[in-house]
Amino acid sequence: REAVEKWTGRICPKIRKKLEKNAELSGNCFPRDAGNGIYHVQSGPNSYIVDIIGRTCDCKSWGLSGILCPHAIAVCRAERIDPEELVHKCYTIETYLKAYGHNIMPLRDRTHWDKLNGMYIHPPLFTKVMGRPATKRRK
């Protein structure tokens, strides 16, 4: 918790490093406006369609991870949008503090645990079979 209080900015440091790496890769991406927040991005021999409003890209990286791909960062650069604003909210410092901000109370050792009068659960029976295990054959 003390380390998190030293973090600055809106998003976590590891995610910021990933954004910086993707920003470097976005140097060879060239976006062209198609209207209504949709862009056609040329990246080498490949082309991608990026929807800033819908927060999607054809490479599917942005939708899977929530972190902007190089194509989306190129569009953000063209539109003068801060890429950190479009990162999914689960990567914000505020959300991190909500998840890990509470105290976890330590447990006492096993001798102080309460005895419960429940059934004893035995491990499953295991029989070792001789030879190589059989495999399912597909016809």
Automatic annotation (TrEMBL):
Native organism taxonomy: Eukaryota, Viridiplantae, Streptophyta, Embryophyta, Tracheophyta
Molecular functions per Gene Ontology: zinc ion binding
Protein name in the entry: SWIM-type domain-containing protein
PANTHER family per record: MUTATOR TRANSPOSASE MUDRA PROTEIN, POLYPROTEIN, PUTATIVE-RELATED
Cited SMART domains: ZnF_PMZ
SWIM-type domain location: 48-80
Superkingdom per UniProt: Eukaryota
UniProt cross-references to Pfam families, sorted A to Z: SWIM (PF04434)
Keywords of the record: Metal-binding, Zinc, Zinc-finger
Organism, scientific name: Triticum urartu (Red wild einkorn)
